[in-house]
């Protein structure tokens, strides 16, 4: 009886222990551990924003760990906001499956590069050129001074009034008489651009000096006129200024003009005009005209 009683008490104790109030309940939530590893240049020290299902959850540093606790079992979209434009990270946002009672870890590897430095356009110095008489003249544009500190320039575009007129670093293109504002746009190997302007001025050619209109009438003008002493084939010192042939024939002391060279030391006419010989009319202005006519070839025009 004593043995039986003891057995009965032990059995009751085991049953009581199995039904006690201290039995632990299974976990109902889990958590996510988020790690950031940031490498490269020009890292934003302000860090990032951790989002859970699109909602801001917490701030997280560039190389840090944040635990998101008390998540019921299920799938969550975990994202990293505030990533700088010069940084990249894969699979952002990403799905993370939470299991009750466990910590699911995920790591964002962020690679940063120094931001592209845009190019610097240099359209060259302003140019003033003379028309050759055709109404237009070819001009070489010069963008060789343009630079790109961290890459290369891949395109040079020259425009006037937003119309493309040339391409390349030093193109040659025609400009009509007048003032032209030309814009150079350069593009680097990362697609960044810069612009600079240059002024191209094409001056109209001076019309040819006419012997009949601009030269001969001068010698018959004024009081006294040059032809009073230098005409009719009996001019003083053999100088006759009444016709093209007589002027080109020269005088007793040498040629009056040397065609194509107004500065020829043997020619007598221009120095006399410049010296205001016998007080001729408007000698200074006529001296410029006479020199131009001589340099243009002293034509009978």
Keyphrases for this structure?
Immunoglobulin-like, alpha+beta, disordered N terminus, 301 residues, 4-stranded mixed beta sheet
Question: What sort of overall outline do the alpha carbons produce when their principal axes are compared?
Answer: rod-shaped
Average pLDDT across residues?
89
Helix amount, in percent? 10-25%
Fraction in beta strands: 35-45%
Main sheet overview: 5 strands, mixed
Tell me the series of helices and strands, N- to C-terminal: HEEEEEEEEEEEEEEEHHHH
Rg over CA atoms, rounded to whole Å, is 48 Å
How many discrete structural domains?
3
Read across the widest sheet, the strand sequence of neighbours is 9-15-14-11-12
Query: How would you classify the quaternary structure?
Result: single chain
- Pairing-aware structural class of the strands and helices? alpha+beta
Distance linking N and C termini: 159 Å
Count of beta strands:
15
Q: Which segments are poorly predicted (pLDDT under 50) over 5 or more consecutive residues?
A: 1-20
Number of helices: 5
Task: Please summarize what this structure is.
The protein folds into three domains: 84 residues, Carboxypeptidase-like, regulatory domain (Immunoglobulin-like); 77 residues, Immunoglobulin-like, CATH 2.60.40; 85 residues, no CATH class.
Any overview of this molecule?
The protein is of the alpha+beta class and 301 residues long. It folds into three domains: 29-112, Carboxypeptidase-like, regulatory domain (Immunoglobulin-like); 127-203, Immunoglobulin-like, CATH 2.60.40; 211-295, no CATH class. The chain is built from five helices and 15 strands. The strands form four sheets. The protein has a five-stranded mixed sheet with strand order 9-15-14-11-12, with no helix packed on it. It starts with a helix and ends in a 6-residue tail after the last helix.
